[in-house]
Design goal:
This protein has eleven helices and eight strands. It has a single domain (about 5-205), classed as TIM Barrel, CATH 3.20.20.70. Helix 6 packs parallel to helix 8 (about 155-165). About 35% of the residues are buried. The longest helix is centred in the last third of the chain and has 18 residues, at about 210-225. By secondary structure, the protein is of the alpha/beta class. The mean pLDDT is about 95. It has helices spanning about 10-20, 30-35, 40-50, 65-80, 100-105, 120-130, 140-145, 155-165, 180-190, 195-205, 210-225, and strands spanning about 5-10, 25-30, 60, 85-90, 110-115, 135-140, 170-175, 190-195. Strands 1-2-3-4-5-6-7-8 form an eight-stranded parallel beta barrel, surrounded by seven helices. Helices cover about 45% and strands about 15% of the residues. It binds SN-glycerol-3-phosphate. The site of SN-glycerol-3-phosphate has 8 residues, from helix 7.
Length: about 230
């Protein structure tokens, strides 16, 4: 099974670059990435991206915090282009489960990417709300989980087993921290991993040789010692 690589970025030039590269099958954005990329007008900026990214799937997230507004934003975003997935957080900022929003949109055939998932219980609840005929992505935040001392692998294993028979539902490894996460996601059978640009380049250049790694490391230390004119 192929684990697709998505690029986790809202940067215009990055999306433009990877849109033409076969290593990348799609893109994921979020409001923080949009902010980092300098987006001032959410819709205009998204349209600028959609002018270059016309085929590969791309996720744009809602940022409303109540269900009514969230639905309103989701319906609008869903009309922007055929390749758009609407990203919905599993809960709002008050911790309220967004199940009704997910259910309504998914039943209407709107492609969703359910985000900010940190537990198997959340995956189960989301899975129940999704229309199995509609394409959907469930994004589990591996890196942030690991940063907090939680092993993300068991949650992935259970989630992948749960959705396995549903070809329209994909499990996505989000919050990638290092290139090796791609190998982990592949071994698990994740459908997608979303990766920051710098790490995509590392994955592209996989095939490290341990001898070369040692030499590169030692040379780096030596060079820095010379540059700093260290003496003992
Ligand atoms: O786009 C969602 C996710 O991949 C964010 O990752 O690096 O902010 O934890 P990060």
């Amino acid at each position: 099974m192929k684990t697709k690589i998505f690029c986790d970025s809202a940067d215009y030039e990055t999306i433009k670059f990877f849109n033409n590269k076969s290593i990348v099958d799609g893109f994921t954005t979020n409001p923080s990435l949009m902010r980092i990329s300098g987006a001032k007008n959410y819709k205009d900026y998204s349209f600028k991206i959609l002018k270059i990214c016309k085929k590969k799937p791309i996720s744009f997230e809602v940022f409303a915090d109540d269900q009514k507004q969230m639905l309103k934003q989701a319906y609008k975003i869903s009309t922007w282009a055929k390749n758009v997935y609407v990203k919905i957080p599993v809960v709002n900022s008050k911790g309220k489960f967004m199940g009704p929003v997910i259910k309504e949109l998914s039943t209407k055939g709107i492609k969703l990417n359910i985000t900010a998932i940190y537990s198997f219980e959340q995956v189960e609840r989301v899975f129940k709300c999704l229309d199995k005929k509609t394409k959907s992505i469930i994004s589990i935040f591996a890196g942030r989980m690991a940063d907090g001392g939680i092993d993300p692998l068991p949650i992935f294993k259970k989630s992948i087993a749960l959705v396995k028979k549903n070809k329209n539902i994909e499990i996505l490894w989000a919050s990638t921290r290092e290139a090796y996460n791609f190998i982990q996601a592949k071994q698990l059978g994740c459908n997608i991993i979303t990766v920051p640009a710098k790490i995509i380049n590392q994955v592209y250049n996989f095939g490290a040789n341990t001898k070369e790694l040692t030499l590169g490391t030692v040379k780096g230390f030596l060079n820095d010692s010379k540059k700093s004119k260290f003496k003992i």
